[in-house]
């Protein structure tokens, strides 16, 4: 049984769903340190063929050691409406814009926490693309530890036999050596930027949110794209 463990990110790129599509269990790592100005709260789309960064304002002043699932959205400004309008402006003329509607509706929901908002979008994209691992929040488990120790303890608690890791974690996983001492096999997923045809024949900007792919090609082909 395969497992991947990833922090929740805002409007994740296709590589996020490629990992998800490989596993039986997808653990959303929601109880580790929140990192300001990271993919946890921002991502890139294409607006008029230029990169546009969308960043979620969060309440962080005086709260340096918040976990991801403790971070509250800053609702003092109407950023949800602004992001929604930006997505509509960016993609309304794309062939599969209508398939973004269920995601855009999430911006209308009265969500107060960052992880609740981003996880709702992640699960909606996965569901529409028919990517169906079992979703588990790390905060719901009993496992403890730091870095690879925590990842290994999660895998042991779930009884998995193979851990699919992002390539960026390889250095510290192998340096710490805990997985090598266990019975759990580790593979590393290294995704390059996905290149796909744009509706307007412009070059694909690298490492955009999966929203861009969906607007161009729809959910039906997304699962094939991330095989």
Description:
Pfam families: WbqC (PF08889). This is WbqC-like protein family protein. The chain is α/β, with parallel strands linked by helices and 227 residues long. It has one domain. 33% of the residues lie in helices and 15% in strands. It is built from seven helices and seven strands. The chain has helices spanning 14-20, 79-91, 101-106, 114-128, 147-158, 170-176, 210-225, and strands spanning 2-6, 25-28, 42-47, 50-55, 134-137, 162-166, 185-189. The strands form two sheets. The protein has a five-stranded parallel β-sheet with strand order 5-2-1-6-7, covered by helices on one side. A two-stranded antiparallel sheet has the order 3-4. It is globular and about 55 Å long.
Provide the fold topology.
Blueprint: E1 2-6, H1 14-20, E2 25-28, E3 42-47, E4 50-55, H2 79-91, H3 101-106, H4 114-128, E5 134-137, H5 147-158, E6 162-166, H6 170-176, E7 185-189, H7 210-225
Parallel strand pairs: 1-2, 1-6, 2-5, 6-7
Antiparallel strand pairs: 3-4
Pfam families: WbqC
Organism: Solibacillus isronensis B3W22
InterPro entries: WbqC
